[in-house]
Amino acid sequence: MSRWEESTTVNAPAEKIFPLVGDMARHGEWGGHGLQATKDGDGPIAVGTKYATTAKQFGTQREQSTITELTPPTKVAWDSVGALGTVHHWVTLSSQGGSTLVQKGAEMVAPRFLAKMTMFKIKKDLPAGLRSDLANIKTQAERPA
User: Fold this and answer.
1) Is the pTM above the cut of 0.85?
2) Which residue ranges form the domains of the chain, and what is each CATH number?
């Protein structure tokens, strides 16, 4: 299994950042890969909530994503299943005085043939994508209200 994680410090409290990262429907606001997420069904976001997602990363990816952990305002995690296989994603927020350490990661837990054949590219591009996402989260969260 391949695993990647990047981090940045954001000059905002976790309570301001979490609504941006905790709701997958808002990931398009900071995701550098054109992510569009549509929540399946009604009701509040919780563990087990599913989203149909489309992203332009490594080609067009249509996936089913399921929230696997939701602990406001410190962590959201989800599994995405699509052409590459199953990828586990997470964002954690750790308060540090007036700022927040934001960590974003991904792990290939069940790669399919396509992921295995393109792993050389994934290993190069995925860390850069995480850093870009974190920079966008930082920009969004540090904007004045």
Assistant:
1) yes
2) 3-142 (3.30.530.20)
Strands 36-39 and 60-71: unpaired
119 three-class SS: helix
pLDDT in tens, 24-78: 999 999 987 778 899 999 999 999 999 999 887 667 778 999 999 999 999 999 9
Q: List Cβ neighbours of 67 (8 Å cut-off, separation of 6 or more).
A: 24, 45, 46, 47, 48, 49, 50, 76, 77, 78
Rounded Cα gap, residues 60 and 15, in angstroms: 32
CA triple 137-141-145, angle to 5 deg: 150
Strands 3-10 and 75-82: unpaired
Task: For the chain, state the CA radius of gyration.
Answer: 15
Beta-bridge partner residues of 75 = 71, 92
Tokens 């069904």 correspond to 41
Please give the Cα distance from 30 to 78 (Å, whole number). Answer: 17
Three-point CA angle 145, 5, 38, nearest 5°: 55
